[in-house]
Amino acid sequence: MRYDNLQSLLQNSSGTRRYFVGLPVPVQLQLHERNEFIRTQQDLRLHAECIQRQSFLQ
């Protein structure tokens, strides 16, 4: 299902919320900065993976 933004996605999808809170806090914070670009659970997973990959390379 598609939502307006990350905040709306997390409020309406318990499975997505569980996935999100299982991520490291620094990743969660960066995801919040991308709020308007994350509208589906797939978007969330892709952005989280990208952030984690970038953090690993630094």
How would you sum up this structure in a few lines?
With 58 residues, the chain is an all-alpha fold.
Low-confidence stretches: none
User: In sequence order, what are the helices and strands, one letter per element?
Assistant: HHHH
State the share of residues found in helices, binned by percent: over 70%
Strand fraction band?
A: under 5%
Count of the separate structural domains: 1
Strand tally, please? 0
C-alpha end-to-end distance: 34 Å
What Rg do the Cα atoms give? 11 Å
Main sheet? none
Count of DSSP H/I helices: 4
Strand pairing plus helix content: what structural class? mainly alpha
Query: Which descriptor suits the 3D outline?
Result: globular
For the residues shown, what is the average pLDDT? 96
Q: What do you see in this structure?
A:
By secondary structure, this protein is an all-alpha fold. The protein has one domain (6-57). 71% of the residues lie in helices and 0% in strands. The chain contains 4 helices and no strands. The chain has helices at 6-12, 14-21, 25-33, 41-57. It starts with 5 loop residues before the first helix and ends with a helix. The model has no long low-confidence stretch (mean pLDDT 96).
List the helices and strands and how they pair.
Elements: H1 6-12, H2 14-21, H3 25-33, H4 41-57
Which features would summarize this protein structure in a list?
mainly alpha
